[in-house]
Design brief:
The chain has 339 residues and is α+β, with helices and mostly antiparallel strands. It has two domains: 8-166, Roll (Elastase, domain 1); 183-333, Neutral Protease Domain 2 (Neutral Protease, domain 2, Orthogonal Bundle), CATH 1.10.390. The protein contains ten helices and ten strands. It has helices at residues 13-21, 25-40, 83-103, 152-166, 174-196, 254-257, 263-276, 283-293, 303-317, 321-333; strands at residues 8-9, 56-60, 70-74, 115-119, 128-130, 135-137, 206-207, 222-223, 232-233, 237-238. The strands form three sheets. A six-stranded mixed sheet has the order 1-5-6-4-2-3, covered by helices on one side. Strand 5 (128-130) and strand 6 (135-137) form a beta hairpin. It starts with 7 loop residues before the first strand and ends in a 6-residue tail after the last helix. The relative contact order is 0.12. The model is unreliable at 41-50 (pLDDT under 50).
Length: 339
Amino acid sequence: MTADLPLCTIVPPFILDRLAEDGHAPAARSLTLDAAHREARLAPSPPPPGPARLERVISDAGHAERLPGRVVRREGQNPGTDDSVNHAYDGLGATFALFADVYGRRSIDDQGLRLDATVHYGRHYDNAFWDGHRMVFGDGDGVIFGDFTACVDVIGHELSHGVTQFTAGLEYRGQPGALNESVSDVFGSLVKQYALRQSAADADWLIGAGLLAPGVQGVALRSMRAPGTAYDDPRLGKDPQPAHLRDYVNTAQDNGGVHINSGIPNHAFYLLATALGGPAWERAGQIWYDALTGRRLPADANFTAFARATVAAARDRYPEPSVADTVTAAWAAVGISPG
């Protein structure tokens, strides 16, 4: 991958660091692999833009640490017996459907980009990531994490990093990086809600529900409804996400806390979506999509800049002032004033 493309993983490095320090070998190996991908800086050229239709290619790494692996399923082929292949295929399709059906986007890059994914990467690899060109899934270790293809919101989250890559290009550090992570949580959750046809009131607002193995004291990796409550486990530690700007975590780890402080804009979106009611992918999601893809948002946008972009997007899209006022109120509730 190039220097401009961060390695965007679903499991924050501070979780794997803690597990590795406690002697959990799969976490230590996963950290080594993640570091190697960050250092590589070079990746295969992406496939050329295609037509405005869904095209998926799923490969199997066969537990090796080489990409892309052997192609095992292409667009239109019937499901096989490998659940990971089927889940990855379906998750790519669900993500494509949200962006195409709701926002009129032609795949991740809006030019018909083929969606590539590799499953069974490494042995007991405890992560999933978007490398700028493809999705890569580990099987998990079965002790802390399960199969990373099993959660459609995880797939939607990682592919949404691609949407950000091709639009605002938010820097992956500090507040811009936390926004980058938050946008992926927002659209990852919306992918799941759209697939299940859930309203904002019915959704669980969890990222990675079902990913934690039995016996782990937690429900998911993150909670947008209640940041800081997703897990509290002797091995993982306690979920460190804040829900309000006053609790912002200043840290040199995790690229300046990109997976931690994303809880603040995450909660703002949850508050907006539930206040507006109905399906969250409609008005709330449309406002976030317009802010991300419009021309107002610089790559180094902080929380206030993004909040202002969402209020402006609401005013442009919805003539009734109550919608923009609700956006402003949601941000104010997490300690951010759009001005």
